[in-house]
Fold Dolichol-phosphate mannosyltransferase.
Amino acid sequence: MNSEVAYSIVVPVFNEEEVISVTYERLKKVMDTTGKPYELLFVNDGSADRTAQILSAICQKDTNVKLINFSRNFGHQIAISAGMDNALGQAVVVIDADLQDPPEIILQMIEKWKEGYEVVYATRKKRKGETFFKKWTAAVFYRLLRSMTDVNIPVDTGDFRLIDRKVCNVMKNIKEKNRFVRGLVSWAGFRQTAVEYVREERFAGETKYPLCKMIKLSLDAMTSFSHKPLKLAIYLGFLFSSLSFLYLLFAIFERLFTSYTVPGWTSIMATSLFFNGIILIILGIIGEYIGRIYDETKNRPLYIIGSKEGFGRGGESCE
């Protein structure tokens, strides 16, 4: 590790040609004020637009900039992990490229790090430019996850955070495939604190986390840090077995002591479909866990790097 690098800024990018130049300028302006050696490490997650070309040109003119190009799109959480794997700084900051997380907050994080905190995460006190549905579902998700796991994962936080070198080294040794990075950082422990900020509207372009990706991230988080969904089968089994037994007693009573019976098949079919639906839900939950076990057993690499730029300068090793 190059001990001369004080700060590494890891920026995962995917199809961000409309904003990436502005992101670079703002990050550079902020980091220049620190007066310490730093690196801006962009991880191109298989962008199909001109993101890679723009970053390559920036990398050629600025020796503080490094670029990792994936061979294809591996996902946001994997891109963050690749950045951490290749970061050299004593403190590593993860920030998205869309400028919803203001780069200026990094200076506050650095101050907290200098006070001795090893993880400094950014908590959103206000979210601009987001729909009520997204805000509501995010609030429900964070609180549900917190209630289902023994790991203290802070609510209303994303991946925007600073981690100390020792925390980064721990993260490099965690190789699970379906990753929820902010949860893994919380799981690792160490001394943690928060800084509050207002999340801005996206500077340009479209969100890279539509509903389907948010659902997948939620599933990764739930299955990585809690086995309580598996217990759902036991709870539902006891509940519906008890209800079925009570209904059986009621049916016997009705048959013996009343003249009222329902000879139709509608109630039987409705009950059968209901319980079959419950069974399929339970099988789906079990299938999610089994699928993740299968991913782990294949032991494939987390990502494949197509090329690197900016490495090998100043005596660093370059792949």
